[in-house]
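Example record

The entry below shows one chain as it appears in the dataset: sequence first, then structure tokens.
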Amino acid sequence: MIHISEDEFRLITDFIKEHSGIHLKDEKKTLLVGRLGSIVRDHNLNSFMAYYQLLKKDKEGKELSRLIDKITTNHTYFMREAEHFSFLTQDVLPYLKRSIQNKDLRVWCAAASSGEEPYTLAILLADYFKNEAFLWDKKLLATDLSLSVLEEAKRGVYSKEKLSALPKIWVLNYFNKINDHQFQIKESLKKEVIFRRFNLLEPQFPFKKKFHIIFCRNVMIYFDHETKAQLISKLYDALEPGGYLFIGHSESISRESTKFKYIKPAVYRKV
């Protein structure tokens, strides 16, 4: 195993924080060496300093994407934290259906990972609007920092076990069977999701229009207090008045320091 010096550890963790917001504390040194050692070896590098120089030269973001994949857990599944989806269909969508006059519904899944969350949302929207779906512009933006998980999401191929949480009628309506073990999202639903690589640390979000719904779940667990506060502020600005923010159940927003109104666990609203 290649040794990492204090200086190398600090340079790499500072680089990670600057470019992804992920804050790695000193006790994560062993984890970092274990996770990144294979990348260093794959590049035939003899030190973590050489790897750091490689990261700095990477203009396309491919090495950063690979690094993020190594140090984060892309653990996701269909209907994860199902209480959110119940609230979405029972309260949020009926309100938005009444209040959006131009039928332009804007939804952003800010941590798309391998696609289970944005496709869950797309299915819920299609199922909710049913015969009126053609009247609505309801394409969903799904973003992530990782190129590899976005490619996986775009393919939309999932195991039979992955679909076990979905109603059978949804599997029938929104998936094509590849074989006894794999299913793929139907093209009609794929067209409802726009996948893009995006870094939540961008100082200003480039979106021309504000969103009615933002799902940004299980992202801020990796951030320190300052980075988290900055992101929350940008998410607030990216929402329409009356819009909803969904975060992970293991996350929270300080009610004293935010303009968001607390609605229920992990659900906030712009007032």
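Notes for this example: The chain has a mean pLDDT of 93. The longest helix spans residues 82-99.
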